[in-house]
Amino acid sequence: MIFPVTVYGDPLLRMKAKPIEKDHEGLREIIANMWETMYNSDGVGLAAPQTGLSIRLFVIDASSGADEEPELKDFKKVFINPEIIETSGEEWIMNEGCLSLPEIREDVSRPDKVKIKYLDENFVTHTEEYAGYAGRIIQHEYDHLEGILFIDHLSPLRKRLLKARLRNIATGKVRPPYRIKVPVK
Hints:
Blueprint: E1 5-6, H1 27-40, E2 45-47, E3 57-61, E4 76-97, E5 105-119, E6 125-131, H2 132-145, H3 156-161, H4 163-170, E7 180-181
Parallel strand pairs: 1-7
Antiparallel strand pairs: 2-3, 3-4, 4-5, 5-6
């Protein structure tokens, strides 16, 4: 089932998501639906809050970056109850977009490396370090679990310049090529 993507203006996107247990009801189905939603929306990552679920879960598929980073060829992972242990390396800027902020793309500065502890879909614990494109996607999706959007990394001036576009998203005046859930006012 393809979820509608929760968009800017919905208070759920600003909440800190809750950890889940191995016996979380319908977890396998939720993960399968998140993959389907992400691919249908042409995304490279999707966090549960973007599907209306305030739980600590995200999925990423960084294989689209394999042209520049060959090790990403089959990079597809599920992150449950992740915890960023540290970020390191030089800050670098990359143009980011977000399914919850359709039609907005901005340059965002993030550290190059991220060390993260998480559970996979089988509830096996991993502690790993990622850099480059995969590290960028992980940091972006992790932010969603903390109630942070990529626009929060922008300067106050840049955010003010986006105000009308953000209002259009929050009021449903955008038409991305995927289903969205507009906040109820």
